[in-house]
């Protein structure tokens, strides 16, 4: 039964089977399970120590009148402190909602970039290119298979995350939205990690840092839509829609952004994988991706008058477009080796033409 399952997995996506078989070993599984469970126990112990006891005068988890930033502790008829368990579970849920996506994204991006760097240095990636698999199958196998250990580690923490959501009374749509956000971000960042490696960037820590800073902004969209008083830097409106105060609008904005970015990153990564010497985008694709980018950028400018600052908007859009066109020029510029080959071919063609013309006389 187990062998049949493995054979079906190999037939479905051989590249994924190769990555899965190389990483899911008893030793790796034991380390992953132990580490994940220990971290969960440490988190629960930390939150357990934050609970008020009989000697506490005030605590964030007490139910009395507020005093400074904490609440006064109130005892029941038996002398036990009345604990605000809903807030305790909510804080645990918020911490896990923040940590779980970052574990998947940062470790996954780092592992993908490092794995492709090793493949290129060993020269094994050229053999993969020559395999009868389609480029889409190979790239998907990399995305699904290389970060399989972080997937398992986060999957083990999902039950605690769900228990915390139930204890805090979090609605199901909010819980589902965090997993949807995690999946959309993973598809975008992992595809970007492939493209980054194909362009010669094999420093995994650079991708991890970029993920940390960029995903923080998108996570705050989700955070602000649930907690309106949450400290946040960013637009309050997008095309006059209150994306920062409505969960559905916030998730729609995030999914459209990640979905469009994933599509174009996938096109560039797929093109670069099939033709390593080609540019990431063709000229026609560059026109389309620029149109998508400008429409996306325009949404931050079109707002109600109370949020409108034309001079600042113009300066920011001009700066962002300047950076964008520099990136686009770099993406469309042929590689040095290709230019040298073209110049050599042109010189040989010209010299051959002159010799042929001289022979006619």
Describe the structure.
The chain is mostly helical. It contains 13 helices and three strands, in the order H-H-H-E-E-E-H-H-H-H-H-H-H-H-H-H. Strands 1-3-2 form a three-stranded antiparallel beta sheet, with no helix packed on it. Helix 4 (85-122) packs antiparallel against helix 9 (204-226). The longest helix has 38 residues, at 85-122. The termini are far apart. The mean pLDDT is 81.
* Overall body shape: globular
Distance between the termini: 80 Å
Poorly predicted sequence stretches spanning 5 or more consecutive residues:
none
Order of helices and strands: HHHEEEHHHHHHHHHH
Q: How many individual helices?
A: 13
By DSSP, the count of extended strands is 3
Helical proportion, percent range:
over 70%
Radius of gyration: 27 Å
The strands making up the biggest β-sheet line up spatially as 1-3-2
Portion in strands: under 5%
Classification by helices and strands? mainly alpha
The main pleated sheet reads as: 3 strands, antiparallel
Average pLDDT for all residues: 81
Comma- or semicolon-separated keywords:
361 residues; mainly alpha; 3-stranded antiparallel β-sheet
Topology overview:
Layout (H helix, E strand, L loop, with lengths): L1 H11 L1 H10 L2 H24 L8 E2 L6 E2 L2 E3 L12 H38 L2 H5 L5 H11 L2 H21 L3 H27 L5 H23 L20 H28 L8 H16 L11 H23 L3 H25 L1
Antiparallel strand pairs: 1-3, 2-3
Helix pairs in contact: 1-2, 2-6, 3-7, 4-7, 4-8, 4-9, 8-9, 8-10, 9-10, 11-12
